[in-house]
Structure formats: structure tokens, C-alpha cells
């Protein structure tokens, strides 16, 4: 297993046109909690689940640090073109996601958070959206037969290993996406960049093709080919 340095990609890669920052505010524990009424009749999912494995102390510490700080994401850009690129991406993906999330504000909050957490973890945003589609069908309260929870179907043991031990927080949008992206980054590092093997490990089916193939197939829907407008003549 690789050491703490394997978590370095959680910083945004150099050369990325958009810098990321967080507002200096705290999210109250009440907003992260999962009241019983809120979680009544969770929607079932049929994805697999990550397997609990021993972690080196250095890796556990790095992962714990990577999921800390739950302030809302707020994109920040160095250039006008970087901001316009993001807005074009957001508009395109919002249109694509509308059938699954009809409410515009909910849709935009979700996409902004996916964008932020993917970039923060050094992941392709389209890959994360493809994974969410396969894992939960974009259902916030999805629960699998093995107990995986939320958008990215995170297993509750992760909250004990690298969090505060409260699995109810996995139904909080940003918490779930943060855990999922950090865990996927960890698996990619363990597999030395092999996405096929990393996705299998994420699903608990390492070495088998159905799950990675499903994610790669779903990813194609979320690819974004930017076509900036040409300046007026």
C-alpha cells in the first residue's frame, strides 16, 4: 500500500484554469444530521460496496484530512474565459440532468458540488457523474442491499475509519460526494492509475468487467466538448 503521498492529487492539478476555494464558514451539525423522518423509506440501490481493508496510519491520516472541512464549495477563477468555460459546462450538464432532477436550484447545487469535489480530488468530472449514475441513479437517499449510502454509495465503515463515525451524514450531499471522490482517488492511487481496476475496487468487484464497463459507458453521456463562441468580426 502506498503512503500518505498518494493522496497528493487532492490538490487541483497545476495548469487547471480554475482555482478552488471554500467560504470560511462552518456547516452546523444539525444540517449534516439525518433525522428519522428525512430518511424514511430510503430508495434502494443495487450497486456493490467497497471492502474494508487495513490502512496504514499515514494513509488513514491523509484520507481523514482529505474529507475534513465541510464548508460549501465556491468556484473561483483566474480568468474570464475559465469562468465562462465553467458556466457553459454547468448549462450543458444541467440540461442533461433535468429529467432526473427537475428542480433547477437542486440541480445546479448538485453539479457545482460534483465539479468542486471532482477537481479537488484530481478526478475527471465526467467519470464521477458516470459513477453516480451507475451507483445510485442520482438518488440522494439510495441504499444498497449491502448498506452503501447516497449518491456515490459509500459504505458506512468509512465514516468510522476516516470520519467521525456518523454514517447518517452520508445522506448529506457534499459529505457523500467528498467521501466518494476521496475514496475513488485513493483506489486509483493504489492501482497506480489503472481506472479499470480502481473502479472494480470501488465496487467490491476488483478485476471483473461489468461494473467498470458500466461506469465508462455512463461517463460518455457526461463528456463535455466546449465550443467557445468566436469573437465578433
From TrEMBL:
A Pfam entry, by short name: SLT
Domain of life: Bacteria
Domain called Transglycosylase SLT: residue spans: 117-208
Matches recorded under SUPFAM superfamilies: Lysozyme-like (SSF53955)
Coiled-coil stretches: none
InterPro entries (alphabetical): Lysozyme-like_dom_sf, Transglycosylase_SLT_dom_1
Family, similarity comment: Belongs to the transglycosylase Slt family.
PANTHER family: MEMBRANE-BOUND LYTIC MUREIN TRANSGLYCOSYLASE C, SOLUBLE LYTIC MUREIN TRANSGLYCOSYLASE-RELATED
Protein name stated in the entry: Lytic transglycosylase domain-containing protein
Originating organism: Acidovorax benzenivorans
